[in-house]
């Protein structure tokens, strides 16, 4: 996994680095279970839905402003409003498409009913790693989750095909000692299976989580076909982990399969609210997202499986020119790694089946905001990568939407501030009813309340 320290553009891809279909030992090609239909039309379909919807919303806002003459403040509001309308319309149509595909049980990739999953009885033929990077975490929590994942696979027929790695970047020496003691006790509890479970702590926390996984790939990556990446608060079922490994083995042109981690174990009001919303909306939104992104799925950094060889070959991250917050090391690395894999010719998919993949979320709004603060800078950085050559359109949209998830709040704030300023100016100014010297009838101020209500509800 190379690192380019001086080039803003991502590492170049040679023709030899393109995905090469693998073959079985008997010389036959592996069967692919990801089937796409009409993938080249999906983004066009989305554009034909989003652009007219945005134009209609913009027209309604224009009709509200027009009767009294457009001011500079209203023109600025109109421009900001169109940007927000486009953002909302994209999410709206993604959800609507996902709703109907879920309602009629249609696979978002093949557009067929009841797509055949990988053969659950087929034994795995290659070795896979399950890795959990941790950093100054609650020792008891990470060990419980790590052991749960291990025990999910201990009794399976494919248990010999998985090794487990806890990759610690913990800097707190007390927590580091607690991790080591807890891991020693875990090894004793696992008995003979402990030979497939490993703990490694780096002395130097270079390049954060990216450097943690890079060091794992450089030391042990050659021993494994793929790695299932977990977060410190992730848990996956044995069925899901084996399913991911089968999808990698049976889809030789696929380098990334992302699952939908569903929030669990929440007991506060805020945590339960977020958990309920995720379980209600995630299947619908993920299905719509899978419909238009097709084989250019995004990577969310955990609860996903990655083919190690292309990951090492293509996912070296550049150091962006300039100073933070827009320059320096790429913080939201997962988006970029998925884009690099697609640029190199490998496919990436999002599974819309939500079973067997879980995570925990912050239990209060303060911790939630702290977590979001870590993502803001990384997502904004992606705007500087939009012009990188060779990226797929879907990946550029991932960059744009990821940044806009935070920028939209600022745009809405500016739009409200302009509207407030406009209202204050009108309230403190004497209206002119006769704007020309020979005007016979007054120019009354018009308030399009009906159009305002329609626009607001729309």
What's this model, at a glance?
With 458 residues, the protein is α/β, with parallel strands linked by helices. Helix content is 48%, strand content 10%.
Report on this model:
The structure is a single chain. This protein has about 450 residues and is an alpha/beta fold. It has two domains: about 15-35 and about 115-405, Spore Coat Polysaccharide Biosynthesis Protein SpsA, Chain A, CATH 3.90.550; about 40-105 and about 410-455, no CATH class. Helices cover about 50% and strands about 10% of the residues. The protein contains twelve helices and twelve strands. It has helices at about 40-65, 70-105, 140-155, 175-190, 210-220, 240-250, 270-295, 310-315, 335-345, 365-380, 395-430, 450-455; strands at about 130-135, 160-170, 195-200, 225-230, 235, 255-260, 260-265, 305, 320, 330, 345-350, 355-360. A seven-stranded mixed β-sheet has the order 3-2-1-4-8-6-11, sandwiched between helices. A three-stranded mixed β-sheet has the order 5-12-7.
């Amino acid at each position: 996994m190379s690192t380019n320290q001086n080039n803003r553009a991502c590492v170049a891809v040679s023709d030899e680095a393109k995905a090469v279909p693998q073959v079985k030992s008997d010389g036959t090609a592996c069967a692919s279970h990801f089937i796409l239909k009409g993938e080249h039309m999906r983004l066009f379909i989305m554009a034909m839905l989003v652009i007219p919807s945005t134009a209609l919303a913009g027209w309604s806002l224009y009709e509200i402003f027009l009767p009294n003459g457009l001011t500079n403040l209203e023109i600025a509001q109109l421009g900001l409003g169109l940007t927000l309308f486009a953002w909302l319309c994209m999410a709206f149509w993604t959800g609507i498409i996902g709703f109907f595909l879920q309602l009629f049980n249609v696979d978002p990739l093949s557009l067929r009913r009841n797509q055949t999953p990988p053969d659950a009885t087929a034994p795995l033929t290659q070795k896979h790693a399950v890795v959990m990077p941790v950093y100054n975490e609650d020792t008891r929590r990470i060990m419980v989750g790590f052991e749960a994942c291990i025990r999910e696979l201990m009794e399976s027929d494919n248990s010999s095909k998985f090794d487990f790695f806890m990759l610690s970047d913990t800097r707190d020496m007390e927590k580091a000692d607690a991790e080591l003691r807890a891991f020693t006790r875990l090894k004793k509890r696992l008995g003979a299976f402990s030979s497939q479970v490993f703990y490694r702590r780096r002395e130097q926390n270079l390049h954060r989580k990216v450097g943690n996984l890079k060091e794992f790939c450089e030391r042990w990556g050659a021993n494994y076909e793929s790695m299932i990446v977990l977060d410190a608060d992730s848990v996956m079922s044995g069925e899901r982990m084996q399913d991911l490994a089968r999808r990698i083995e049976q889809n030789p042109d696929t380098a990334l399969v992302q699952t939908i981690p569903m929030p669990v174990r929440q007991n506060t009001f805020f945590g339960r609210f977020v958990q309920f919303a995720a379980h209600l909306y995630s299947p619908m939104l993920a299905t719509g997202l899978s419909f238009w992104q097709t084989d250019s799925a995004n990577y969310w950094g955990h609860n996903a499986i990655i083919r190690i060889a292309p990951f090492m070959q293509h996912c070296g991250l550049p150091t962006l020119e300039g100073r933070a917050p827009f320059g320096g090391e790429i913080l939201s690395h997962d988006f970029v790694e998925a884009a690099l894999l697609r640029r190199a010719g490998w496919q990436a998919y999002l599974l819309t089946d939500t079973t067997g993949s879980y995570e925990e979320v912050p239990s209060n709004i303060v911790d939630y905001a702290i977590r979001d603060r870590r993502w803001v800078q990384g997502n904004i950085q992606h705007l500087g990568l939009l012009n990188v050559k060779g990226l797929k359109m879907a990946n550029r949209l991932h960059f744009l939407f990821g940044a806009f998830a935070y920028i939209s709040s600022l745009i809405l704030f500016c739009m409200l501030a302009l509207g407030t300023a406009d209202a204050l100016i009108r309230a403190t100014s004497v209206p002119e009813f006769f704007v020309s010297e020979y005007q016979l009838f007054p120019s009354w101020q018009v308030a399009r309340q009906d159009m305002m209500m329609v626009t607001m509800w729309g």
